[in-house]
Amino acid sequence: MRKGLIIVHTGNGKGKTTAALGLAFRALGNGFKVCMIQFIKGTWKYGELKAAEKFENFEIIPMGKGFVNLGSEKPDPKDVEAAKDAFEKAKSVIFSNNYDMVILDEINYAILYKLLDVDDVVEILKNKPEKLHVILTGRNAHEKIIEIADLVTEMREIKHPFHKGIKAQRGIEF
Amino acid sequence: MRKGLIIVHTGNGKGKTTAALGLAFRALGNGFKVCMIQFIKGTWKYGELKAAEKFENFEIIPMGKGFVNLGSEKPDPKDVEAAKDAFEKAKSVIFSNNYDMVILDEINYAILYKLLDVDDVVEILKNKPEKLHVILTGRNAHEKIIEIADLVTEMREIKHPFHKGIKAQRGIEF
Question: Cβ separation of A54 and B52 shorter than 8 Å?
Answer without folding.
Answer: no
